Amino acid sequence: MKNIKSDLDKSTGLRKTYILFFMLILAILIPSFSAETASLSKEGIKAHEPIYIDNNLDFTAANGVTNGSGIEIDPYIIENLDINTNTAHGISIWNTDVYFIIRNCIIHDSKNNCHEGITFHNVTNSKIENCEIYNNYRGIRLDSSSNNQITNCTVYNNSCDGIHLYSSSNNNQISNCTIFNNSYDGIWLGGSSNNTQITHCTVYNNSDHGIWLCLSSNNILRDNALENNTYNFGVHGYYVSHFCQDIDKSNTIKCKPIYYLIEQNSFIFDDTMNIGYLGLISCTNITVENLTLNSNMQGLLLANTSYSNLTNCITYNNDYGVYLYSSSNNQIANCTISNNSDGGICLYSSSNNNITNCIAYNNQYGISLAHSSNNNAIANCNMYNNDDGITLVFSSNNSQITNSNVYSNSKDGVWLVHSSNNQITDCAIYNNYYDGICLERSSNSQISSNHIYNNSEDGIRIGYSSYNNLTANQIYNNCYGIELYYSSNNEIHYNNIYNNTNYGIYNHDSDVEYQANATYNWWGSPDGPGDVGPGNGDKVTENVLYDPWFKDSSLTIILTEGGVEEPIFKPFHIFGIIIIAVIIGVTIFALRRRWRK
Q1: Which helix (H) or strand (E) holds 294?
Q2: Residue 213, Cβ neighbours under 10 Å: how many?
Q3: What CA–CA distance (Å, rounded) separates 521 from 530?
Q4: What are the beta bridge partners of residue 560?
C-alpha cells in the first residue's frame, strides 16, 4: 500500500508540474495573442513608401491606387496604407482634377524633417477620410486647392498646424475631425481661403490657435467644440470682408457659445450671458459691459462697428485684449486689459474713439493706434509693465493723450512713428527702460505739462522729426533729458530740465538747419546749462540755443486759466502787472478825493 500511495503521490506531483508548466506557457503566449489581436484591428493596413503624384496620369498601382477610374461615380481609391514620412511627405499630390479618395491611412513620423502628412497643391475633387495623421510637420496642407473634403480624421502631435488651408483654397469641407496637440494651430485658413465649411470638429490642446480664419471670407462654422488651445478662436483681416464669416452659437469655447454678430444694432451683452467669444462686425449701438473674456485671438473684436460702448470689461491671456478694425465713435471705459501676448487695446484704421480710465499691463503694448487711426483720445489711463506703454504708428494723427500714467514699460513709454499733430499733455511718464517719449519721423506734435523722469535712456527722443513743441514739462533724472538727431525746427521752451545723468539736451547734428531752440528753460542751476553753456546746470551740446534761460525753477511756468503754461515774467505779464497797478492806483486816488469832498 505504501508503494502504491507513493506512486500516486509522484503521479499527482507530475500532473501539478505539467499544469504549472502549461500555465506558464499560456502566461507567456497571452500577450502575444493580445498583440496579434490588436494588429488585426488594423486588418489590411500595409506599409507603403511615401506617395508623390504630379498629375492625373500618376494615379497608378505603384502609387497606392487599388481601384477606380477617376470619375465622380468611380473615384480612384488610395486606402489602408501605413506611411512613414521620415524621408518625404506622406502623400503629396499636385495638379490634379480627377476624383479620388484617400481613406483608412496612417501617416506619421516626420516631425523633425519638415515633411507633411498629406499635402495638396492645385488639387480638386478629393476626399480624405478616416485617416490618422500624427508626428509630422503639418498634418494636412491644402495649397491653391478647392472643392475637397476632409472627414472623420484624427490629426495630432504635428509640429506646425494640424489642418492648413492656404492660397485661395476655397469651397472645402472639414467635418467630424479631432485635432489636438499640434504645436501651432489646430485649423488655419489663410490667404483668401473662402467659403469653406468647418463642422462638428473637436479642437483642443493646440499650442497656438484652435481655429484661426486669416485673410479669408465667408466661411461657415457649425457645431465645433474648442477647448484648452492657447488662443481658442480668432478672425484676422486687412479688409472688412475678411471679417464676414457665418458663425453661430452652436460653436463653443469651453462649452460657452461664440457670439459673432453681422450688421446688428442695439444689443446688450453683459455678465448674465455665458459668452466664450464676442465679435461685432458692421454693428452699431452695441453695449458690452462687465464681461470677462480670455484665451482667444481677440478678447473683444470690433470690425466696422460704430457708436458702441465697452465698459467694465476684463480681457486677459488673449493675443489682443480689445481689437478695433475700421471702427469709429466707440467708447472704451473702465476696462482692465492684461497679459495679452500682442496688444492690450489695438486700434487699426479706427478713428474718433475714446479710451478712458483703462488699465493695461503685461501686454506687448498697452494701447496702440495704428494705420491711420486718427482723432482718438486716451485719457486717465494707466499703462505699465508692457513692452511699450502707448504707440501711435503709421499715420495715426491728431490724437490726444492726457492725464495718464505710463511707467515701468520694458521699452518706451510713448512711441510715435510716422504720426503727426498729436498731443501728450499732463501725463506722468517714468521708469521706462528705454525712452519716456520717442518721436520718429513724427512732426507738429505738442508735448506739454508732463512729468518725464527716471527713464533709463532719454526723457524725450526726437529723430527725423520736425516742428514739434515741447513746453512746460518737468524732465529730470533720465540718462539724457532730450536727445535729437536729424530733427529741425523743434521748439523747446519753459521746461524744467535738470538732474539728467549725461545731458539735458544732446543734439547729434551740427548743421544750422538742425539747431534746437531751447531758450527760456530752467537747467537746474541759476548760472545756466553746462558743457558748452556757462553754468553748472544740465549740460547741452553745440547747436542748442539755450540763452536766455530761467534762473529759478519756480519762475519757469504758471498754469493759466486756459491750461497753457507760460513764463511768469514774459513782457506781456510785466506790462499787464504795470497796467493793473496804475489802474488800481488811479482808482484809489479818485476814491480818496471823493471821500474828502
Answers
A1: strand 292-294
A2: 28
A3: 13
A4: none
The two beta strands, 132-134 and 423-425, are: unpaired
| Torsion sign over Cα 55, 60, 66, 72 | positive
CA dist 276 to 210, 257, 291, 321, Å? 13, 5, 10, 14
Contact 126, 93 (CB under 8 A): yes
Distance CA 15, CA 18 (A): 5
3-state secondary structure 453-493: ECCCCEEEEEECCCCCEEECCEEECCCEEEEEECCCCCEEE
If we measure between CA atoms, which residue out of 26, 98, 91, 83 comes closest to residue 52? 91
Q: What are the helix (H) ranges across 189-243?
A: none
Q: How far apart are CA 185 and CA 179, in angstroms?
A: 9
pLDDT in tens, the chain (597 residues): 333 334 434 444 444 444 344 344 434 343 333 333 332 246 789 999 999 999 999 999 999 999 999 999 999 999 999 999 999 999 999 999 999 999 999 999 987 789 999 999 999 999 999 999 999 999 999 999 999 999 999 999 999 999 999 999 999 999 999 999 999 999 999 999 999 999 999 999 999 999 999 999 999 999 999 999 999 999 999 999 999 999 999 999 999 999 999 999 999 999 999 999 999 999 999 999 999 999 999 999 999 999 999 999 999 999 999 999 999 999 999 999 999 999 999 999 999 999 999 999 999 999 999 999 999 999 999 999 999 999 999 999 999 999 999 999 999 999 999 999 999 999 999 999 999 999 999 999 999 999 999 999 999 999 999 999 999 999 999 999 999 999 999 999 999 999 999 999 999 999 999 999 999 999 999 999 999 999 999 999 999 999 999 998 875 544 333 333 334 333 333 334 444 454 445 445 554 554 444
Q: HEC string of 68-125?
A: CCCECCECEEEECEEEECCCCCCEEEEEECCCEEEECCEEECCCCCCCCCEEEEEEEC
Q: Among residues 515, 501, 565, which one has the least CA distance to residue 545?
A: 515
DSSP letters of 139-176? SEEEES-BS-EEES-EEES-SS-SEEEESS--S-EEES
Report the distance separating Cα 178 and Cα 172, nearest Å.
17
**What does the angle CA 22 – CA 27 – CA 28 come to, to the nearest 5 degrees?**
100
**H/E run at residue 177:** none
Determine if the peptide bond prior to 548 is cis (ω within 30°).
yes
How many Cβ atoms from other residues are within 10 Å of residue 247's Cβ? 24
- The pTM of the full predicted model, rounded to 2 decimals, is 0.86
Non-local CB neighbours of 469 within 8 Å, separated by 6+ positions = 445, 446, 447, 448, 490, 491, 493
Distance CA 13, CA 35 (A): 34
For residue 321, give the C-alpha cell.
485684449
